[in-house]
Amino acid sequence: MLDSETKAVELPEDHAEELRLWLRLLTCTTLIEGEVRSRLRERFDVTLPRFDLMAQLDKAPDGMTLSDVSKRMMVSNGNVTGLVERLVESGHLDRRTSDTDRRVQVIRLTKLGRAEFRKMAAEHESWIADVFADLTPKDLRELMRLLAKTKASAQKSASRRRA
Amino acid sequence: MLDSETKAVELPEDHAEELRLWLRLLTCTTLIEGEVRSRLRERFDVTLPRFDLMAQLDKAPDGMTLSDVSKRMMVSNGNVTGLVERLVESGHLDRRTSDTDRRVQVIRLTKLGRAEFRKMAAEHESWIADVFADLTPKDLRELMRLLAKTKASAQKSASRRRA
DNA sequence: GCCAATTGCTTGAAGCCTAAAGAAATTCGG
DNA sequence: CCGAATTTCTTTAGGCTTCAAGCAATTGGC
User: Residue A153: which of B12, B30, B135 has the nearest Cβ?
Assistant: First the structure.
């Protein structure tokens, strides 16, 4: 009894399995991400971060603030600033200062931006389908379930640390 | 019969499920990666790429060539060059030109590098264990299996494109 | 109304990353 | 043995990313 308590904190336990799982998860993501990245470049001469940002905005017809984008994309504020800058420059994004709060920048897709994104998104979806082509419907559902559980567990772990 | 053939190529099929799965996979990885990154910075003032590189070298006592590292880490050659440069500079890595092929650089951990890595790796393993803490042993095995399948499927898809 | 804390965003320094081009060494076909 | 192709690594330009510091606007306590 006392043992089981001390053990968790003191003794070096074997977590090689979790480690291997994490590495495999990372490998899968890196593999797919790299694939998507080079296809986006080849077909549309666009970078993955730009695509991701446009994807967020496509889901928000009324626009988003930079903070919203930053949270959704899980990247830093400064990162978003530069990304938006380049996309405004290229005519894909429209940027306005909020009427009610002059600190806030509201961005949304321009007509051009939306049109281009839709084209890219359609192909993108088929690439992703191809990536998972060998998984059965049951595999897909099961993987979804386990990743949901993983996400929850990871979030809990992160909040434990911040506490 | 003809239908099933045309359909796969022509008709816009619904692959929303695969798309959601990919986004969830990406979210999990980003979450965990961010967590590991900030912990490495806090505790050891080291970056994730440096840690990853040292992890590769820890598994290869006789050293590795830069190309080996590049393939293993799935990053570009130029990336490795810079990374190695900084780690040699900080005394963690040792770099020598191969005796048999003057193009080849062989790198390995120094005593300092190995000692520091071992300390980091021990903590790292416990962080990862914590991330997956809510998954049962069965979950872990099942997730491992499905990710193996995903990896194989993704590799197949990537090679189809390059073909 | 005022001042402190917070929030939203930008800036700057450093590092990471890729693609593409190029330099140097090796390998291989003939 | 020669030259073409390949391999290994570096360099360059451009972009992505973080952290930390800082500025401007708003909010909330008093």
Answer: B135
